[in-house]
């Protein structure tokens, strides 16, 4: 817990606003539910650390059985390695001299696996690792529909062959991020079918790689909307959801969670009410992530101070430190009122903040740093 925070905590009303809250009971319920369902699928749980960037949250995930973490950035990898986490998957290609040098140092500490998808990425890494006497355990990133990074499934065997011919590289398996599931929006059956297909496609790629003589013990899928489908495909060995720890308005829109499961909120106050039909709050675009896949035209779901959604109040826009709430429900709001907003995207919102408060009932009970931000 941060130094200087009073033992026993503070009532929410005493916090400076805006502030980032994590409802501890909701977070614990999310962690237990995901650990239970991924455990029932018979696969390992390796949450993505980008959602919290907070070691206090990561420790709770480990306590719920996470085998380690997924990272996107060097700073996330370093933070977890410094904290003693022994199994880290860096699911982003290390490109450029600074990232390659970091990767070699991080690999030398042990327990790190890196995602690769091309010779262009792999050759400088292999050269640098070989000259330092370090091996590079890697997973081949496969594109199962997002069309971001990753080889097409039918190019996996050829690419793996080329990568495994490099001096320092040792293949461990395959990875996909089924982020394309969000394109199904509220069509949950369509989303589930696409998640199942992503899992089955990756498992088939793993089979083909094994048939070609490659080691492929790790078959890793990962996303929150896909966590009810992709990990259940036969042959998948691990799941990497990230957002599930908090959920968010996007995930509610995709049917991954209900609004009452959203653990991350921005605590804010009404600061001005000069025009009928609009009130201003002290949370603007520097407090929220506007990234919306399922929440067009809104910066988040506005709730009362207890976390219950307010009818007829929309978070219609923002300047840097001002938010615009509109709609008939704003007639009941007064300057000074305390509100909570469920962000569209929890991970992007996390990156805006230096610290978070665990909230329990109406009190902030712990304060923790958020690190490894840009
Ligand atoms: C490689 C990778 N794995 C896992 C995840 C976690 O997905 P989600 O945010 O849907 O939980 C992400 C999210 O961006 C990702 O990029």
From TrEMBL:
One GO molecular-function entry: D-serine ammonia-lyase activity
Keywords tagged on the record: Lyase
Record flagged with keyword Phosphoprotein: no
Domain D-serine dehydratase-like: 263-360
Transmembrane segments: none
GO biological process, one term: D-serine catabolic process
InterPro entries documented for this protein: Ala_racemase_N, D-amino_acid_metab_enzyme, D-ser_dehydrat-like_dom, D-ser_dehydrat-like_sf, PLP-binding_barrel
Record family assignment: Belongs to the DSD1 family.
Protein known as: D-serine deaminase-like pyridoxal phosphate-dependent protein
